[in-house]
Amino acid sequence: MKRLAIWGSVAALLSSASMAFATNVTILTPYISSVPTNEMAQSFKAQGEKRGWTVSIIDTRNDFGQLASRMEDTINAKASAIVLISADPAQIGDQVELAAKSGIPVISLDGSKNANVAVNVTSNNFDLGTQLSDALFKALGGKGNIVKFFHSAHPGVHQRELALDEALKKNPDIKVIADHFVKVPGPVDDGRVAMENILRQHGDDINGVWAAWDDPGVGAELAAESEKPDAKFIIMGIDGSQQAIDMIKSCTRYKATFRQDFPKIAEIGAEQLEKILGGGKADKDEISVPAVMVTPETLGVKCP
C-alpha cells in the first residue's frame, strides 16, 4: 500500500510539472470572419499543435474594447505567449505593454511593428497597395473612374490605402467617384450592399473597383451580377481569397488579386515564437513575406 501511495504521489507531481511546463498560446483577433484572418489563425494553430503547444483562438468581432479586455484575461491566465492577428498593437497599447511587463511574449501576424511586440510577420502592405493600384490603372489605360473599398482600422489595409493615395497623385486622370469604409464582420455582404447603391448612383460611369482586400471586391461583383449584369467595369483586389480566384477563373469582372501567402506568414510566425519561447530572440522586428499576382493567365484560363 505504501508503494502505491508513493507512486500515486510521484504521478501527481509529474502531472503537476507537466502542466507547469505546458505551452499555452492564445491567438487574439477582432476579424476571424475575414477569410484571410481565419486562414492565418487556423494555419498558426496547426503549426503550434505540431510543436506540442495548446493553441486557443479568441475573436472579438470587430470590438477593440473587448479585444483589450480579453487580452487582459489572457495575461491574468498566465498564457505562455500571445499572437495578435490582423490587429494594430497600438490600439491596445496598454495591454501589449502589460504583457511585456508580465514576461509574456507577444508576436503579430499581419499587423504592425511595436516596441512591445517581438516580431510582426506580414506582407509589405504599402507595396501591395502600389502593385494593385498600378495594375488597375494600367488595365484602365491610365484614365477612368474608380470605386474604392477600404478599412482604415486595419494597419495593413490602411497602408494599401496610403499607397493608392500616392498612386492617384501620379495619375491625375484616374478619379475616385465613390468610396466605402467596409464594415467587419460581414465584409462581402457589406461590399455587395454598398456597391448596389453605388451602381444605382453612378452606373455606367464606373470603370474600375479598387478593393483593399478581396472580400468587398467579391461583394462588388455579386452586386453587379444582380443589379447591372451588363456593366463593363473591372475589379482588382488583394489577398487571393478562394472566392476571388474562382471569379477570376470564371472570367467575371474580377480580373486580378495579389495573393498573400497566409500559411507561410503563420509558419514563420510559429518559427519565430518557438525561438523566443526557447530563450532566444526573433530574427528581426518585422519579416515580410512576398505576394504574387493572380490573373486568368496565371490560372491558365483564356477569357473572351
From TrEMBL:
Gene3D superfamilies: 3.40.50.2300. This is Ribose transport system substrate-binding protein. InterPro entries: Peripla_BP_I (IPR028082), SBP_2_dom (IPR025997). Residues 1-22 form the signal peptide. Belongs to the bacterial solute-binding protein 2 family. One of its GO terms (cellular component) is cell envelope. Keywords: Signal. It holds the Pfam family Peripla_BP_4. Residues 37-280 form the Periplasmic binding protein domain. The keyword Signal applies. It is found in: Cell envelope. GO terms for molecular function: carbohydrate binding.
